[in-house]
């Protein structure tokens, strides 16, 4: 779990975009572009917001990606009819701007017994939900918060038993994923490729899973934006998902106001 110094608490909204600078945008999805719901399947991004993302992508030569714990198939469904570069499962799978897929896999020798162990453990805790993502597992307890400690203990024992795995705690969820995959690594990978390369990275996220992403963009002199309450490594804050939607509109009007050509400069 990330430890946070009190001086990292900020309430400053993100700064206006500077004329003549080139930006790349990275967005978490749940809790950032989509309000959290009791069931992960009930989450959606309003069409007007999806259209704002497309407009922002077009204004940055396509330098906009979604960076989420969800598999990329779900991210495509949530952002349809548009299609963006994506990092799914905390970067364990990534589709770059050229539509090339990069995927970290776990051996079947690990996946099958790990899934059996988790299924057995979770089935004893009514209201919890096990989500299999191929190379990762999410142990949800939003509907059964009393099981928080047992779910965490189960996840910890799984990571101890099987090599090459790490834990990723989140809001009412604990994830088990391959070691070395995180949102910071995913953002760094995008930033080495066009059209992201050479731009100023902006990353917006709301949860513990986003802290590595904040650190990565801070190290690149980028703009890190935390959505909602809580301390963290982000330098700026937006209060909630509705604020993110408003901010997207502001970004687009800044671009228009700056009289910048479509598909060129911000
Ligand atoms: Mg989130």
From TrEMBL:
Cofactor dependency: Mg(2+)
* Entry's EC annotation: 3.1.3.12
Q: Pfam families per the record?
A: Trehalose_PPase
Highest taxon listed in the record's lineage: Bacteria
A molecular function (GO) held by this record is:
magnesium ion binding
Any single biological process term in GO? trehalose biosynthetic process
Q: Keywords, A to Z?
A: Hydrolase, Magnesium, Metal-binding
Family assignment?
Belongs to the trehalose phosphatase family.
Known function? Removes the phosphate from trehalose 6-phosphate to produce free trehalose.
What's this protein's name?
Answer: Trehalose 6-phosphate phosphatase
């Amino acid at each position: 779990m990330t430890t946070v110094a009190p001086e990292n608490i900020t309430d400053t909204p993100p700064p206006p975009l500077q004329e003549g600078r080139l930006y790349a945008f990275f967005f978490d999805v749940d809790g950032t572009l989509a309000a959290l719901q009791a069931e992960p399947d009930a989450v959606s991004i309003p069409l007007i917001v999806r259209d704002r993302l497309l407009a922002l992508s077009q204004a940055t030569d396509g330098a906009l990606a979604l960076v989420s714990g969800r598999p990329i198939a779900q991210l495509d469904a949530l952002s349809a009819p548009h299609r963006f570069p994506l990092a799914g499962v905390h970067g364990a799978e990534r589709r770059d701007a050229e539509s090339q897929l990069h995927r970290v896999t776990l051996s079947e020798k690990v996946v099958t017994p790990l899934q059996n162990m988790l299924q057995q453990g979770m089935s004893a805790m009514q209201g919890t939900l096990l989500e299999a993502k191929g190379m990762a597992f999410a142990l949800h307890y939003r509907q059964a918060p009393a099981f928080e400690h047992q779910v965490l203990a189960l996840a910890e024992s799984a990571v101890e038993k099987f090599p090459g795995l790490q834990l990723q705690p989140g809001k009412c969820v604990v994830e088990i994923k391959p070691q070395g995959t995180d949102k910071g690594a995913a953002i760094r990978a995008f930033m080495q490729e066009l059209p992201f390369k050479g731009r100023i990275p902006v990353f917006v996220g709301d949860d513990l899973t986003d802290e590595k992403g904040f650190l990565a963009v801070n190290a690149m002199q980028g703009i890190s934006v935390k959505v909602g309450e809580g301390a963290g490594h982000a330098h700026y804050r937006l209060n909630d998902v509705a604020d993110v939607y408003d901010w997207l509109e502001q970004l687009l009007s800044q671009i228009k106001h700056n009289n910048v050509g479509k598909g060129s400069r911000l």
